[in-house]
Amino acid sequence: MGDLISTMAGRRILITGAARGIGEATARRLSSAGAHLALLDLERPGVEMLARELNGLPLHCDVVDEHQTRVAVDTAAERLGGLDVVIANAGIHVHARTDVIASADFRRVLEVDLLGVWHTLRPSIPYVAQTGGYMLSVASLAATLHLPMLGAYSAAKAGIHALANVMRLELRSHGIAVGCAYFGRVDTDLLRETSTDSPPTWRSLSRWAPKITAERAARGITDAVARRARWVVLPTCLYPLIALPSTFQLALEPLRR
Fold it and tell me: How confident is the model at residue 206 (pLDDT cuts 50, 70, 90)?
């Protein structure tokens, strides 16, 4: 924790989906390291309670709403005196076959998980550019490992993966580093709420992709922030699922305009 404190103390960090799960665990870890936090979430009571505990800035926000999210980002930058790091973590999950999923459910997953990331990162760019900071999007191993019953979720996370790759190339001239987190099964409310109706294929992942705790995911995120890492993959044994498909993308990164 000593090394983390030396790199995080005083850093101004915005986190979406902060009220519970990975976002909450990350906020707690960063707060203990001395970071100044803006906590965004749709769940007003939860985010306000956490902000009081961590002496952070609570911002009630639905990342699906582009204008509302822009206002929240601007407010966070104004109240914190700038932004050094932005962590786009908010997400939802629906288990359903693509031929039976309700259109509203499919659309909502894309709006929250993909558009919500874009709505968060886009208005943050001018602020993070001022400090040569870091942006991290939380995707999933579903970005490259596409399983039945996860059509909407996989499409959204694959979109986050692609968006992070593009922004990494576009924003490096601004001094901004861009990372993406790829987690397997994280033991959060989101996973528990969908585990009862999950397909056998998904449940069988436990044989080779054991669950990790939200605290373990948070450690991965904070380490990535400290290192300005391109990727964080957990469990680490699944790193090839991200590294191998990204071989040609990596070849683009040395190119100049």
Answer: low
